[in-house]
Amino acid sequence: MSKKKSKLQLAQDKAQSAINKTNEIIEKLGSHTNSLYSVLNDIQELFDKIRNVPNEKRLQYEKLKDIRLNWKQQAEKIEKDYKNATVKNAGAGAAGVGAGVAVAALGPTAAMGIATTFGVASTGTAISTLSGAAATNAALAWLGGGALAAGGGGMAAGNAFLALAGPVGWAIAGVTLITSGLLFWKSKSDKKHIEDVFTLISERDVKSYDLAIAELYERISRIVDESEKLKDAIVHIDTFGLDYNKMNEAQQYELGAYVNLMSSSTQLLVHPIMGLHPKYSANDFIKFVSWKERKTDSKLCTDFRDLIISLSNLLYKIDLNSRDKKLLYKTFKRNKKMLKSLNMKKKEFTPAILDAVEDALEYSYADI
User: Fold this and answer.
1) Taking a C-beta distance cutoff of 8 angstroms, is the pair 82, 143 a contact?
2) What keywords sit in the KW lines (predicted)?
3) Whole-prediction pTM value?
4) Are 274 and 82 in contact (CB under 8 A)?
């Protein structure tokens, strides 16, 4: 007879189920973004054939072409980096241990879904809070954990764990690294207490996944709708002729409306799914550091920046009392796997780090 699962294990199972569901929809999203990309290319070809288009309009849709090309290249890079990372990490058994899609499933279509989900940088300007490289690392973290981000994204091994911010990373790290520290607790009361904290974290993340799933469905619905509008536009533009100056005013106006449609459709390709983004970002940390009433020492902020950001995501909106903090500190301090993944020595992990996280989150909540 199998042992009854704990409340924490059940919560983690639920989180994994939500992750699996999210992945299914991300792959569906990839199929739809692939179709949208093709239709946008078709309408672009029509525009390219039209002579005497005013420079302002031409520049507008040329820029959109660059954004789409960048998105396609990002998807190809994610696919390539993932395959390279899985090969590189296969010997260490790291490949496929993460929350994300299985190795065999990551073809071009799934990569397109991932590229849209995590956002891309467009012609030098980040659409999301992530730069192009960071978006790729976030995608790799989702697909296979920190080890893949380190192998494929060029991150230092000690920083791979730190990239796992928000529900994406902690779903991976929470099971394999964080909760392994629970094994050290001999007191049933203490162990149950700290398990309750991690259960709250898992339950919070399930809510994030549920919101992301709703957001993904909404994105797919909008893509389907705009794809149909673009197909109708292609039929209409075909009747306008190939000289802008010979078009009547209504046709010229309609052509401008189609450029706007291309713009909104392109945003559907590149704008990220916010439900899977970190709750606490690097920008939040920058604001915190510049806060004059900050209690945390500046040197600590500098030395442990990434760790503070990462733990702020782990503990975001989790109410902790003094006992919770004490037990969390001991759990982390005793967790050799986690400390190794952070490239930290045991003596470097001090209570001041959790105090800094509490300080950073208090400021973040007040700033909302």
Assistant:
1) yes
2) Coiled coil, Membrane, Transmembrane, Transmembrane helix
3) 0.82
4) no
Percent of the chain at pLDDT > 70 equals 74
CA 212/CA 110 separation, integer angstroms: 17
Q: pLDDT of 22-64, one tens digit each?
A: 888 998 999 999 999 999 999 999 999 999 999 988 999 899 9
**Rounded-to-integer distance, Cα 117 and Cα 324, Å:** 34
On whether the CB atoms of residues 356 and 292 are closer than 8 A, the answer is no
Bridge partners of 121, per DSSP, are 126
HEC-encoded secondary structure of 112-145: HHHHHHHCCEECCEECCCCCHHHHHHHHHHHHHC
Q: Which amino acid is at 326?
A: K
Identity at 160, one-letter amino acid code: A
Q: Provide CB contacts within 8 A for 100, sequence distance 6+.
A: 19, 23, 142, 143, 144
Contact call for residues 171 and 138 (beta carbons, < 8 A): no
Distance CA 158, CA 339 (A): 9
Q: Which residues are CB-neighbours of 81 under 8 A, at least 6 positions away?
A: 136, 140, 152, 153
Helix H or strand E segment including 196: helix 188-237
pLDDT digits (tens, 9 = 90+) for 112-148: 988 898 876 443 333 344 455 555 666 666 665 443 4
